[in-house]
Specification:
The structure holds two protein chains of two kinds.
Chain A: H1 3-15, H2 17-54, E1 60-68, H3 70-77, E2 82-88, E3 90-96, E4 104-109, E5 117-121, E6 129-133, H4 134-140, E7 147-151, E8 161-169, E9 190-194, E10 204-211, H5 222-236, H6 239-376, H7 383-508, E11 514-518, H8 523-564, H9 566-575, H10 579-620, H11 632-658, H12 662-666, H13 683-686, H14 691-702, H15 704-742, E12 747-751, H16 757-768, E13 773-787, E14 792-800, H17 806-809, E15 827-830, H18 831-837, E16 844-848, E17 854-863, E18 870-872, H19 875-881, E19 889-894, H20 899-910, E20 915-920, H21 921-964, H22 966-974, H23 979-1016, H24 1029-1056
Parallel strand pairs in A: 4-9, 6-8, 14-18, 15-17
Antiparallel strand pairs in A: 1-10, 1-11, 2-10, 3-4, 3-7, 5-8, 6-9, 7-8, 12-19, 12-20, 13-14, 13-16, 13-19, 15-18, 16-17
Helix pairs in contact in A: 1-2, 1-10, 2-8, 2-10, 2-11, 2-21, 6-7, 8-11, 8-15, 8-21, 8-23, 10-11, 10-21, 14-23, 15-21, 15-23, 15-24, 21-24, 23-24
Chain B: E1 4-15, E2 18-30, E3 35-40, H1 46-53, E4 61-66, E5 69-70, H2 76-86, E6 87-90, H3 102-110, H4 119-125, H5 141-154, E7 159-163, H6 171-188, E8 191-196, E9 207-212, E10 215-221
Parallel strand pairs in B: 3-8, 3-9, 6-7, 7-8
Antiparallel strand pairs in B: 1-2, 1-4, 4-5, 9-10
Helix pairs in contact in B: 3-5, 4-5, 5-6
Classes of the chains: A alpha+beta, B alpha/beta.
Chain lengths: 1067, 233
């Protein structure tokens, strides 16, 4: 290149720096956006790939419904594609956290594969410790060092009481989805890790495989997929072997167990039968003894009776004898009395004799005494008298003596009589006494016998009573024995039935189902890759709008530049410069602007755009570090595109000029012919237009290229701005639609699993009494997976207690807003799910329950829905195909109360021990809204950059417009147009174009929005293009605002135009 | 006092650090209805004078009075109004708006004027009765210049300024244009100023002003006016 030309080129740049800058800016925006958005996909792929490699994450996972064994591992180890295999354990448990909540946790073993990252604290040192994820601590308010209790119903964990020692991040769960579970609400809430040794399982639950060479490629790339698919195909070859072995083992084990049970049963039977028989024998012998006893007693009783009968006879005999004696005695007594009486009369005679004697004596004695007293006192008495008296005395004495002697004799006779009487009395008394004695003896004897008799009978009665007791006891024993026997027989029957059942079960043992999964089956990874693909789709279309617009504008500028310098080109050509020498100035100019702008764009956008987009995704995915790469390939592609477009256009423009002869070039280019436009043929419109409008209309049709450029440019920019707003609206609308239009409930209350159906209904009743609650609907809320060749999606199943109640809280309508009835013969699924599965009403789907049961159901209807997937079905249908319906959740709609009161309600509900969890829909809604707020950043990036583009486009077009028509403008200024008239004259045209551009942009925005929503939408969300008038207005206003700003520049630019230009010769 | 007075007008341009004096205390006067030809070599200052006279440029000092109005004192809008109402301008390269038909180009001027003439009549006057609906590209150079003249006179201006009106035309066509201008001046009593470097056409004028080095060095009142058709060059 000649020095003069180089100088000229540089001078050109400084002279027309505005043009240079605008081309640079165009290139910057075009290349930047292209590169930035395109780089985001690869950056995201690189990020997840690094993360997965760093944590040594599996390539293939094996899960069997019946577990996996050491044999399977050795089998897999031999496979040529496999570089590493581990078998590990995992199980779902309910966790008793500090508050009343009972979340479901997935417990896994810490392994070398799928390494967990320690965030805080330390790894468990022993089997009594665990590590948890951060959200567990946040949600439960627990801290490291506290202990949790897990409910390990299958008893597969050795220690159910675990101390939290740290916080970890699992590479297996990069999204917030934790999968489904057969426990709790049907969803796993958190993951936890414990030492492998704390698991108490016979078989592995999961086998993880690293594929040889897979780490050489980026996850999600075709190479990676090929390598893994090859290994997958090879491993799938083992399916039969693994399944059969496991099945056979299980069958054998089950058979062994049955046999053992049978053996045990037989033993038991024999043993117990013997025992029962022995007992019966014993009882029988007792019974015999009792019978014997009874007989003996009877015998004794007879004996006793006989014995006593004899005794009594003897006594009766005695009594007779005594009576006889008594009679004899009485007779004797009569005789004795007669004797006594005789004696007594003798006696009385005697006694009369005596009394005579006595009287004689007394007279004698009185005579004697007078004698004696006269003797003694002999006064007057002579001795003869004395001797007479003496003689009398003596006679008297003799007489006396005789008397006395007779008296004695008589007395003696009396005595004898007395003695005889006495004797008789004595003998009678003696006889009487003897009888009395005999009588007493007899009575005594009688009494004695009576006593003995009663004693004997008592003894007999006692013995009998005892026998009776014994008999009762024996009878009781018999009864007990009988019932035992019955029980035993029943038990045996049962056991036998069980064994029969077990035998049947063995026959029915399902063949194990082996799942061989790649990372694609991990919700988080596949979601991430899907999102990456969304961004890549975005990158395919979105920057192209920018790129096309930017390139078109630059192209116009460059073409214009070349045309402006036509004369100079002609001069140079005339001077003998070659075509390439001449055009190199323009090529250089365009190249510099393109390359500088492009490189700046790359630098800015490679770092900002992926970062901004990542900001959004980082909320959804738990991947720590985003890898920003200066993706040279993409950058260069963009740059080359820009370069080819802009420089190509420059070369084309140069060549077009250069083919002309210098002489022609030196002369002014023949002005473009004026032309009548179609509108002129419609006089009633044309004639009504004012003069400048006519000019405008004609100009628009005259400069077709500029017309198109302007419209495309403005259309593109407006579309992008509108797209931004529409995206924002559509995103925000999702939440409002779902939680405003579809779901009217505020809370989901989940009952504890242990509650019976009646208890749940009681709970429902109790809750319905709260005055804050407007509506409550009892449902079974569970989850499942639906899969077919098109997709694998988790779905929430809602089964209402009665079909009508569901409408109280869920607006169950189809896409045409017609109410959907729950029928008996089919389920209702939500629209997004239907479209992901590519199924329609009448098709059948396979639902895999949490218990890995596969159930085929028919789709009866498709419901409108925006967030997550749901399946609704009637209770009857559920009972029929899924198993027993058991309500476990309440959908609650509160009255219109402030949020604080809702929170209070939620808190008070949580204190109810029957309630497992209370989820507040408002807070869920808030979470989603917050998440979506981040999308707004992206939207603002869109709006700002599109606005910037709009400005540059308009400014540039206006500049070109002015420079092309400089002479015309100068002329009308000379003609005396006022500044505003000149402005009108020029701007009217671009205003009209802007209006057309905006109108096109409206459609463009809608189309782009629909396209973007289709490509970017997340699987669990359904975006519906939301066309808010306000968004259209704002998009129009922004474009108009930029247009007005450009107009201000234009106004000043027009004012500055020197009228002398009009005098110059045509260039 | 003359209809137009150009008194001691100085015009200086700054070109970087250099100061160029385009007009150096130039004075002349023109009477109403006069046809004036200003002649001079390139750079003599005649275009500058025309620009100042036409309200397209302002004088650095001095006074320019047109019909008793001192246009050097006019600012912004007043100056535009002066151009709009008092001046008709004919350019060397016609400066027609390519996208407008002949008559529309005339209308472009008349629509902004209060006392404008009927465009159609003007077109008939300039002899383009049959070409009114043609676009400039469909017209010859002479015809285009006629349209330009029509556009200028349709405004019914006080002063018709022509900058090398024949510069881009061939001899005969040029002559016809000059004739049109002369006729216009005569018939309409229009004050016409023609700038040219072609001394030969000077005899057609009522007054000839010669420019050299930014000064009007010679002002000749031409008593022997020769009709254009008789001028040969």
């Amino acid at each position: 290149m000649k020095k003069a030309l180089l100088k000229d080129s540089i001078k050109e740049i400084t002279k027309t720096y505005k043009r240079f800058l605008s081309i640079m800016l165009m290139s910057l925006l075009g290349v930047g956006f292209f590169a930035g958005i395109r780089a985001t996909g690869p950056d995201m792929r690189q990020t997840i790939d690094n993360y997965l490699k760093e944590n040594n994450v599996y390539d293939i996972e094996l899960i069997s419904t019946l577990g996996l064994t050491e044999d399977d591992i050795s089998l897999l180890k031999e496979n040529e594609y496999v570089s590493d295999v581990i078998g590990t354990y995992s199980t779902d448990v309910l966790v008793n956290a500090s508050n009343n909540n009972q979340p479901v946790a997935k417990l896994m073993a810490i392994e070398e594969l799928n390494k967990v990252k320690l965030i805080d604290g330390s790894f468990p040192l022993n089997d009594k410790e665990c590590v948890v994820e951060k959200s567990f601590l946040t949600a439960t308010g627990m801290q490291i060092g506290q202990t949790i209790e897990i409910e390990d119903s299958d008893d597969v964990i050795n220690n159910d009481s675990l101390k939290i020692t740290g916080v970890v991040e699992s590479p297996l769960y990069i999204s917030s989805e934790r999968g489904t579970s057969s426990l709790g609400t049907g969803k796993v809430n958190y993951y936890m890790y414990i030492n492998r040794s704390n698991f108490n399982m016979d078989v592995y639950t999961n086998i993880y495989i690293k594929v040889k060479g897979a780490d050489n490629y980026i996850f999600g790339s075709d190479e990676y997929t090929n390598v893994v698919d090859e290994a997958l195909a090879s491993i799938e070859g083992y399916e039969e072997e693994i399944n059969t072995r496991r099945y056979d083992t299980l069958i054998a084990e089950a058979n062994d167990k049955i046999e053992e049970a049978q053996q045990e049963l037989d033993n038991e039977y024999n043993e117990n039968q013997q025992k029962l028989d022995d007992a019966q024998e014993e009882i029988d012998s007792y019974k015999e003894q009792i019978a014997n006893g009874r007989e003996e007693i009877e015998q004794n009783r007879t004996n006793v009776y006989n014995t006593f009968l004899e005794y009594e006879n003897q006594i009766a005999e005695g009594k007779t004898k005594i009576e006889e004696a008594k009679t004899t005695l009485a007779n004797q007594k009569v005789t004795a009395q007669e004797n006594i009486n005789a004696a007594n009369s003798a006696k009385a005679t005697l006694q009369d004799n005596i009394s005579q004697i006595d009287t004689n004596l007394e007279i004698l004695i009185a005579k004697y005494n007078e004698v004696y007293n006269t003797l003694e006192n002999p006064i007057g008495l002579t001795e003869e008298d004395i001797e007479y008296l003496k003689g009398v005395k003596l006679q008297l004495e003799t007489e006396k003596e005789g008397l006395e002697k007779t008296k004695i004799e008589l007395s003696e006779q009396i005595y004898t009589i007395d003695t005889t009487i006495e004797q008789i009395n004595t003998s009678i008394t003696a006889a009487e006494d003897a009888i009395t004695d005999q009588q007493i003896t007899l009575t005594e004897k009688e009494n004695e016998i009576a006593t003995l008799k009663s004693q004997a009978y008592q003894a007999l009665d006692d013995a009998e009573a005892e026998l009776d007791n014994n008999e009762q006891e024996i009878n009781d024993s018999q009864e007990e024995l009988d019932s035992n026997r019955l029980e035993f027989e029943e038990k045996i029957k049962e056991a036998e039935a069980e064994i029969i059942d077990a035998k049947e079960d063995v026959l029915n043992i399902e063949h194990p189902k082996l799942y061989i999964w790649t990372r694609d089956n991990n919700n988080g990874y596949s979601g991430f890759i899907q999102d990456t693909e969304s961004i890549e789709n975005l990158g395919k279309v979105f920057p192209i709008v920018f790129f096309v617009v930017a390139t078109l504008i630059s192209l116009t500028s460059m073409t214009r530049m070349v045309e402006e310098q036509r004369q100079q080109i002609g001069t140079l050509k005339a001077l003998g410069y070659t075509k390439s020498q001449i055009s190199i100035k323009y090529i250089l100019y365009a190249t510099l602007a393109t390359i500088i702008g492009g490189i700046l764009g790359m630098i800015i956008c490679f770092y900002t755009l992926p970062k901004i987009i990542w900001m959004m995704y980082s909320m959804m995915y738990n991947i720590p570090d985003f890898i920003l790469e200066f993706n040279f390939g993409i950058g260069v592609t963009g740059l080359i595109c820009a370069f080819i477009c802009i420089v190509g256009a420059t070369i084309y423009a140069c060549l077009k000029e250069l083919t002309e002869k210098p002489a022609i070039l030196m002369r002014p280019k023949a002005p473009k012919m004026g032309k009548r436009v179609i509108l002129e043929k419609i006089p009633f419109i044309w004639n009504k237009l004012n003069f400048t409008t006519k000019v405008t209309v004609r100009n628009i049709f005259r400069y077709k290229k500029r017309f198109l450029m302007t419209i495309i440019g403005i259309c593109g920019c407006t579309s992008l701005i509108l797209l931004g707003f529409l995206l924002k609206d559509s995103i925000v609308a999702v939440v409002d639609n779902q939680y405003g239009d579809i779901f009217n409930y505020n809370f989901i209350i989940t009952a504890k699993e242990s509650l019976t159906e009646d208890e749940v209904k009681e709970l429902e009743y109790d809750i319905s009494q709260d005055s804050k609650i407007d509506k409550n609907v009892l449902v079974e809320f569970t989850s499942a997976t639906i899969s077919n060749l098109d997709a694998i999606e988790d779905v929430q199943i809602i089964v209402p207690e009665d079909n009508e109640s569901i409408y109280n809280v869920i607006n169950l309508v189809d896409l045409q807003d017609q109410k959907i009835e729950l029928k008996e013969d089919g389920v209702v699924i939500t629209d997004k799910l239907a479209s992901l599965l590519d199924v329609d009403v009448g098709d059948s789907i396979i639902v895999t329950t949490n218990d890995n049961e596969e159930i085929e159901v028919k789709i009866d209807n498709i419901a409108k829905n925006y967030v997550y997937h749901y399946m609704y079905l009637s209770k009857n249908l559920y009972n029929e195909v899924f198993g027993e319906y058991s309500p476990n959740a309440l959908l609650i709609e509160t009255n219109d109360i402030p949020n604080e009161e809702k929170d209070d309600l939620s808190r008070s509900l949580m204190t109810d021990s029957r309630i497992l969890s209370v989820s507040n829909i408002d807070s869920m809604k808030e979470t989603i809204v917050n998440m979506m707020d981040l999308l707004k950043y992206v939207v603002w990036v869109l709006i700002v950059s599109a606005g910037l583009l709009a400005f540059v486009v308009l400014y540039n077009l206006e500049n070109i417009n002015i420079s092309e028509r400089l002479r015309e403008i100068a002329t009308i200024k000379v003609l005396g147009f006022y500044d505003n008239e000149v402005y009108d004259y020029i701007v009217k045209e671009s205003t009209l174009l802007t209006i057309i551009g905006i109108a096109c942009g409206m459609f463009g925005g809608i189309i782009l929005n629909i396209f973007l929503l289709k490509t970017c939408e997340i699987n669990v969300l359904r975006f519906v293009p939301e066309l808010k008038v306000s968004s259209f207005l704002i998009a129009i206003l922004i474009t108009v605002a930029f247009k007005l700003i450009v107009n201000i520049f234009t106004y000043h630019a027009l004012k500055k135009i020197d009228m002398v230009e009009s005098l110059k010769s045509v260039e | 006092m003359s209809y137009i007075e150009f008194e001691d007008v100085v015009k200086k341009y700054k070109m970087g650090e250099m100061e160029i004096t385009a007009l150096d205390r130039t004075s002349f006067s023109i009477e109403k209805g006069e046809l004036v030809v200003i002649v001079g070599a390139s750079g003599a200052g005649k275009t500058t004078a025309l620009n100042i006279l036409g309200g397209m440029d302002s004088a650095t000092s001095g006074k320019v009075i047109v019909d008793k109005k001192d246009i050097t004192k006019l600012k912004g809008k007043e100056l535009i109004k002066y151009r709009r109402e008092d001046i008709g301008f004919v350019f060397q390269f016609y400066n027609l708006v390519q996208n407008l038909t002949a008559i529309e180009n005339v209308e472009l001027a008349t629509q902004i004027c209060k006392d404008s003439l009927n465009p159609k009549e003007v077109m008939i006057k300039v002899g383009l009765k049959d070409r009114v609906n043609n676009f400039p590209s469909q017209l010859s150079g002479g015809e285009q210049q006629r349209v330009a003249i029509a556009r200028a006179i349709a405004k019914n201006p006080k002063l018709l300024l022509c900058d090398e009106p024949t510069g881009a035309l061939d001899y005969n066509t040029g002559k016809q244009i000059l004739k049109l201008l002369q006729d216009t001046s005569r018939k309409e009593n229009m004050t016409v100023v023609i700038i040219t470097h072609n001394q030969a056409i000077a005899p057609m004028a009522d007054k000839i002003i010669k420019f050299k080095n930014g000064r009007a060095i010679d002002i000749i009142q031409n008593d022997n006016i020769i009709p254009v058709e008789n001028i040969e060059w």
